[in-house]
Amino acid sequence: MGKKVLVVDDERLIVKGIKFSLVQDDMEVDCAYDGEEALEVMNQEKIDIVVTDISMPLMDGIELIKAVKKNWPEVSVIVLSCHDDFEYVKEAMRLGADEYILKNTLDENSLLEVLEKAKAQIEAKKAKTTQEKHTKKLIQMGSHTLKYHFFNGVLSQTLDCLFVKFESLDFAYG
What we know:
Structural class: alpha/beta
Strand order of the largest sheet: 2-1-3-4-5
Strand content: 5-15%
Distance between the termini: 64 Å
Helix content: 55-70%
Radius of gyration: 26 Å
Number of strands: 5
């Protein structure tokens, strides 16, 4: 099953070109032309990956990354920009972007490679979350079992001998 990608860029030709190449690769693609429009789409659709430009009107890519990571931390963010200034790269990565690609180095294969990597990371996060939930459930079950045995021991007064042993150890070593 393909992932849902949101392409955000104020340059319509770039958006259409990226959309065309991704649809050919069996991915669902939504488009937005600034950060505010992107957030509207994300409030209505479940998006897995955001591919965004940095310089856009109304809300730039940096603000978009902040909003996405705050509201949808599981979404992968790929920055696609013509800014090769290290400060932009550093800020985008600090905010949680997964990749930063320069537009002048972009071709269809490199974008698809980055998106495949993002899809794999999403699946790995999902598997980890599932495993963590399973582990937490097992711990809770173990906790309930311990509580059951503890209270049964207290009620049947078989737990008293355990406390007597600990008291005598405390007295001996205390």
